[in-house]
Amino acid sequence: MMNELIRMSAREAVRRLEAGEVTPLQLIDAAVARIEEVEPVLNAVPTLCVERARTQAKRIMAGEITPTGDGRGWLAGLPVVIKDLNEVEGVRTTHGSPIFADHVPTSSGYEVERLEAHGAVILGKSNTPEFGAGAQTFNEVFGVTRNPWNTALTCGGSSGGAAVALAAGEIWLANGSDLGGSLRTPAGYCSVVGLRPSPGRVPHGPGGNPFGTLSVEGPMGRDVRDVALLLDAQAGHDPRDPLSYPAPARPYAETVEDRPTLRRVAYSADLGGITPVDPEVAAICRAAAERFAGLGVEVIENSCPDLDKAVDVFNVLRAENFVISRAPLLEKHRDKLKPEVIWNIERGLELSAGDIGRAERDRAAMQRSMAAFLDEHDLLLCPTSIVPPFPVEQRYIEELHGHRFPSYIDWVSITFAITVTGCPVLSLPCGFTSTGLPVGLQLVGKPRDEAGLLAAAAMLEDALGIARQVPLDPRRPG
């Protein structure tokens, strides 16, 4: 029974919950059993709150929590896991940092409140690097999270625990956050789906930078349609978030089933040469992009907007963001911060107003360039990561094909270059290397067009036929 339940899609689980064929308590028990089975190897969900989850499940079963409005995004008691950067009332929330190792919040973040109001049952916290800094999931509180496709390798980051939990069948849906690729990189490395929505699509907070647009919350799932379901639960206006806006008239769970009319899509392996890319990864992604041709869509290769300044712009704005959110911690707890976080804060403190102003002007130009490009193309496609998953002991990629990356974050420029444009972007499983490691493809959609992006991604997902390969049992090296 447990094996059957954990292998269901989130959509099927919700359908069965609504039909009374299964209860939230049964799903909690199934998830806990699976977590106990695989966590000693993976370390994806280091904090559980089982009794809290059962209390919430009983409230849903008793009718104390019911769908509101048109019922979109109703999860009916489905267990989910929350990234350990998001505060959950009464649940240990460490942010992956020794500074907050024993922190238990007295209130939940807006995004958590919204999920619980939509019938989600929070079962635990997924692992993340310290303050989400870096695309490799490890920290001094819980240690390293391992990739279920090969436990000797990284799962990426910073939403690494979420991606692993989905791929290994520990949970049906998970939230994530994305500043420079934190949803997308682990999704690509674990062969699941992660969507970075447009800024404001998913309300979040409270925080010290409510007008910031680099970091967003978003859904992760085993396939595109499950992601659409979770986005319905997440999206909408919250007056406490000044950038949030109402959800569209039709639910994403409906529009994802639309057959989109696509004219042409563009594919670029390296986004115009801003980064080197492993040849095998590029070839796998190109082959996946070319599947659109078989669907009657023109595929234009080696085409993308001008993103030449994306690396410099992102690094400046990200450093500024670290000053806003983390500078007080440097003053009080320098000895407890990892070197990469210290470096990022100090870099931000060295910035001048002129540096920030120039970065914002260049960002505006790239946003206009991307908008004009997507007026002529329905999608922009590129790899999710420039390399396959690498050894879990390695903190980050330092060099590729003779190009040395200046910092711990520059190797993910293929994701953060899209961040600066503000467009919604989804990482879709698109193939495997010769050694059986997952490869992800980024699909960049038109500004604020999550509905069109999800529908196009579902169409390609159906053509590729890869989604059914998760969940899987952890695979040890050799």
What does this structure look like?
By secondary structure, the chain is α+β, with helices and mostly antiparallel strands. Strand 16 and strand 17 form a beta hairpin. The protein starts with a helix and ends in a 14-residue tail after the last helix.
The helix-and-strand class reads: alpha+beta
Spatial gap, N to C terminus: 30 Å
As a whole number of angstroms, the C-alpha radius of gyration is: 21 Å
Identify the overall geometry.
globular
Main sheet: which strands, in order across?
1-3-2-8-10-9-16-17-13-11-12
Oligomerization category of the chains in this entry: single chain
What proportion of the residues is helical, as a percent range? 25-40%
Low-confidence segments, given as residue ranges, are: none
Number of helices: 15
What is the average per-residue confidence, as pLDDT, rounded to a whole number?
97
Tell me the total number of β-strands.
Answer: 17
**What kind of sheet is the major sheet?**
11 strands, mixed
Classify the beta-strand content into a percent band. Answer: 15-25%
